[in-house]
């Protein structure tokens, strides 16, 4: 039987950094954790990676428009950032707790491939300036590509900083399930904090317009987190995927301390592992992550394979 999750108890020394890829992730994933840390006298900072501006269907509905150009997207992003500020106020945080990077919504994976140094430097600066003892970040197995790539970016930034005492890493899952890594940390139930979390959710009016039921279901789940610990030993480079179809359309991405490399499946430095799988012929450094995706445009936003840690 799986072990029961450990109850998390912060204190006045706790410095919690919440990494939110989009507006509303901070509330859905960590709304009660934020309140718990504040109630204990700790500090909280929310690092918002994107303004959630690539969100066309609610915008079309609320603004009664079909075409959405650059100006409309910028306006929508400003609206969503204002909603985050209101949500955090309902969770008991001052405006100074929010730090927004303004990266492209639905663009974190492309950014990681194309400008990893710039994105890594921005994250390292934010993390070093705050000095967290706890980091709540999206789970690697989250099916939204921005969430998985946010996990990789934060993990690589933390590894490069080399804290004297590593912060506790808590992974929260919004989209999808991860049966392989059950939650290891939970929060004590609090009706008052849950009510405040639901009130914070209603501040995200742009998202509630079309998806109120789904948003409430996500927010109603007990907050449970994966305790993320560094893998022991050197990465072996064995991939978990054995793709048969669409190989000509697949792209493999590798991200570790050596940098970010990306290849079409046909050109990737792969060899058979003797058991029907594939192994990378590349020097690897922990933490090391690989991603498999289709290198073709698609209206479906969620990952089929996504990221894994090697």
From TrEMBL:
Write down the Pfam families for this protein, in alphabetical order: PIG-L (PF02585)
Q: Which domain of life is it from?
A: Bacteria
Protein name stated in the entry:
PIG-L deacetylase family protein
Species in which this protein is naturally found: Fulvimonas yonginensis
């Amino acid at each position: 039987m799986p072990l029961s999750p450990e109850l998390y108890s912060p204190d006045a020394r706790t410095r919690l950094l919440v990494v939110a890829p989009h507006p509303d992730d901070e509330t859905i994933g960590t709304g009660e954790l934020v309140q718990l840390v504040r109630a204990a006298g700790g500090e909280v900072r929310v690092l918002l990676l994107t303004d959630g501006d690539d969100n066309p269907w609610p915008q079309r509905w609320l603004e009664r428009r079909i075409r959405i150009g650059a100006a409309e997207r910028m306006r929508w992003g400003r609206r969503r950032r204002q909603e985050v500020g209101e949500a955090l106020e309902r969770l008991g945080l001052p405006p100074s707790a929010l730090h927004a990077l303004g990266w492209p919504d639905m663009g974190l994976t492309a950014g990681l491939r194309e400008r990893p140094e710039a994105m890594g430097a921005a994250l390292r600066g934010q993390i070093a300036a705050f000095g967290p003892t706890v980091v709540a970040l999206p789970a690697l197995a989250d099916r939204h590509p921005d969430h998985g790539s946010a996990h990789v970016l934060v993990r690589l930034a933390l590894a490069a900083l080399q804290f004297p005492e590593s912060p506790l890493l808590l992974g929260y899952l919004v989209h999808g399930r991860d049966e392989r890594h059950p939650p290891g940390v939970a929060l004590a139930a609090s009706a008052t904090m849950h009510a405040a979390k639901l009130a914070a959710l209603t501040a995200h009016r742009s998202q509630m317009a079309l998806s109120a039921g789904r948003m409430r279901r996500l927010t109603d789940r007990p907050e449970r987190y994966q305790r993320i610990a560094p893998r022991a030993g050197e990465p072996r480079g064995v991939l978990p995927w054995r793709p048969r179809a669409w190989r000509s359309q697949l792209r493999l991405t590798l991200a570790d301390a050596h940098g970010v490399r990306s290849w079409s499946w046909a050109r990737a430095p792969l060899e058979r592992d003797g058991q029907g799988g594939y192994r990378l012929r590349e020097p690897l450094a922990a933490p090391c992550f690989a991603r498999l995706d289709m290198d073709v445009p698609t209206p479906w936003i969620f990952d089929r394979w996504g990221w894994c840690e090697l």
